[in-house]
Amino acid sequence: MHTSFDPSLPPPTIREEDCPFCAIAAAHPPFSPIDPPNPFPSNLTAPQSFVVLSTPALIAFLDILPLSHGHLLLCTRAHRPKLTDVTNPEARDLGGYIRLLSAALVRATGIADWNVVQNNGAAAAQVVPHMHYHLIPRPEIRASGRYRESFTMFGRGQREELDEDEAEHLAEELRQQIAEILREEQDEAESKPPKQKL
Amino acid sequence: MHTSFDPSLPPPTIREEDCPFCAIAAAHPPFSPIDPPNPFPSNLTAPQSFVVLSTPALIAFLDILPLSHGHLLLCTRAHRPKLTDVTNPEARDLGGYIRLLSAALVRATGIADWNVVQNNGAAAAQVVPHMHYHLIPRPEIRASGRYRESFTMFGRGQREELDEDEAEHLAEELRQQIAEILREEQDEAESKPPKQKL
């Protein structure tokens, strides 16, 4: 289902049991983001999925038709068609992890600019009806004259299939950067002087 | 500064004291989203701003160059250039309020499909360097043959200035829908049977 967007086709209808994101979530139990499994199994689904985060509520993995190197998806573990279908705790978790994944993505790719995009419904170019945030690195292409192209985000022919060796390496780097950032923030929180009691 | 995006111009540099979003935040103290001021002052800034949410950490208002009717922005009250500059509590608040604003926007506009977009850096089409999420309703335009156009999200000539009377009415409707949803969720939480103690 997760193919190029074709506006001439009817909007997709996917039953929960056929949802590709539910399949990825079901194959990957939660792990601690600060201590990810290493080596990490990337052969738990067909096609392979490259998971970088898996919590009780959320899961994040590389897009199999990336718009750029590092294109990541973050979704709820439960099948929620649109953002308005998620619970408030899930929405808050999504908000927190988008920040963390953004920071890890900048470090892992070396690309300092990126878009966060979340599409709800066919008229908004949602293809897989299980809510997900896209994180899309944007290399500086001003010099190459391809500037405008970069904003055709969901058109035909913009996307190439993920290279599996490259993806495996990138996913590993992302899991390590996520863990590293969490350790740094933990250290920072611990090194602050405790608040004086009044 | 908040004008059409022109890729031939250099990336914007704005000092914090000149930031238009900081000016809106400074003019609008926090109010309770479940009990918003009514009537609401929309003349606190020049140009007028149409604020729908103002908390200690966040502020949301109508985009003055909307891509569609209802185009909303949600940003941190503090000046944070990119999403990676926000604190984790701010990021979690952003996540929670994007869900609430989405639900209010669907009710207020009657448009069931929408995009959430957050741009970081000039290469990602960020214009105002104070991080913000866009919420952009997407009316069903498949029938009109303008389908592809809707995905040119930040090009020149796509945007018209906000009509102030219409904006005032829409902002009021959004504040009321936000309050209504919060009351419904409060009622729902209270009507659940309390958990049995083990």
Automatic annotation (TrEMBL), chains A, B:
One GO molecular-function entry: catalytic activity
InterPro entries for this protein: Histidine_triad_HIT (IPR001310), HIT-like (IPR011146), HIT-like_sf (IPR036265)
PROSITE patterns linked: HIT_2
Keywords: Coiled coil
Gene3D superfamilies associated with the record: HIT-like
Coiled-coil positions: 157-191
Protein origin, superkingdom: Eukaryota
Motif (Histidine triad motif): 130-134
Pfam families on file: HIT (PF01230)
Protein name: HIT domain-containing protein
